[in-house]
Structure formats: structure tokens, C-alpha cells
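== Fold encoding ==
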Amino acid sequence: MSFTLATWNINSVRLREVLVTQLMTEEAPDVLCLQECKSPVDKIPLEAFAAAGYPHMVARGQKGYNGVAILSKQPITEVASFDFAGLDHARHIAGRLENGVTIHNFYVPAGGDVPDRNVNEKFGQKLDYLTDMRDHFQANTPENSILVGDLNIAPREDDVWDHKKLLKVVSHTPIEVEHLAAVQDAGNWVDVTRADIPEGRLYSWWSYRSPDWDSADKGRRLDHIWATPDIAGSAHSSRVLRHARGWEKPSDHAPVFATFDV
């Protein structure tokens, strides 16, 4: 079975319902993972998504903040929902497809503006969340699994527009990169996107603050698709749908895609 998966920080699923259905219609991934839905689960416009061909959903939500959802053309069964770092935030949902593949959808805390946990509680929460992710996957080695989401870290030098300028900016600091690498190592996760596109600058997020995000191109690769080694080799056709960042009233993130032949 071959299926295409997309991950997208939508920055309010109700505000951008039209954009979600546009992606479903134009790109038609078999599975669409959304983050920062900013909605209780019962307020997610599932009826509209079902009409677009996505009748199945597993999700965690809360009013106005966070929120994750996996929308699928095929049946999907909820298998887990983690509350790492004890934040009581809707930041994770996991579902299993009928082919046996488990999909983990994460929205890692952004971490605030100052990369120092002693003066910025949110940065400490981010590091603690990543530590709990690491510990979980060390204790529960994943198999036949995919991990996606807005991980809020651009780990490589070519995942940001200027490595040196961003070394002290939250999302690209060495301590965040180290914590993300520890999560990846703990689960033996393969960065599918970079396995497919090993060279060159690659971004999935462009700030709203830029008056001309496309020309300035000061992006970061914050959104990721990982897979366990037993299925990572079946992944291909990775891409970032960059032009979606230019849709009307867009999210500041662009969808990231990969196809798996499993």
C-alpha cells in the first residue's frame, strides 16, 4: 500500500478551514496531520473535511491554543496521547492506520523569545518536553511508525536562512538542536525529508513579520517527517508546498509531504 502524508501547522483550523479543504482538493494527501488547531475537538469542521474526502479523524484540542489532529481518507484508530512535561496541553495524538503504520503527530512548544530557561519559563518547558519525548522513545522503541509535526526546531545549518545570525535565536540554538537530536536518536528516527533532499536550504516557515516573505526568504525548517528504520527506506517524493505560504490569509507554515510505499 502506498500513501502520501502531509503535515501542516495550520494556525487555527477554523479560521483556515478553506485552506485545509483547498489542500485536500488540490493535493489530496491520504493523511493530513495538523498542528496548532486552536479548537476544541468538537468544533473542528469535520463535516467539511469529510465532504472533501476525509471522514476519519483522531485529535486532541483545547480552546484557543495548541491542538493536533490527524485527518485520513482511510480508517484510523487512536492509540496514544501524551502530555509530556506535564503541561496539560493538547500537543500530541497518535493513530494507527489499517496497514499497521502508527503516526505520531506532535506540536512541540515554541519556547518563547529568550533562549534561557532561568528567565524564560517557556524555554524550559520546551526543553523538558523534548526530554520527555526522548525518555519515552528510549523506553518504548518505535517500530513501523512515522513521527511528524511542528517540532519548532530547525536543526541543520541549511535549515535556516543564516546559521550564524540564528545561533542565539529560539528554534536554532545549540541546546535545542542537541535536545532534538537526542529525541531522534532515542527512537532511531530517520529524517525522511533530509534523506530525500539531502542538500540545500529548505524551509517550511516564514515569519508574518516579513513584508515580503517570498523575496526575503528568511525561512526555517520547523516542520518534520521522521520514520522508523523499518519503513524509512520506503519513503520518497518529499517536498514542501512553498506556494501555500502565499495563499490568502495563510498560515506562516507551509505543508510538508512524503509518500510511503508500505
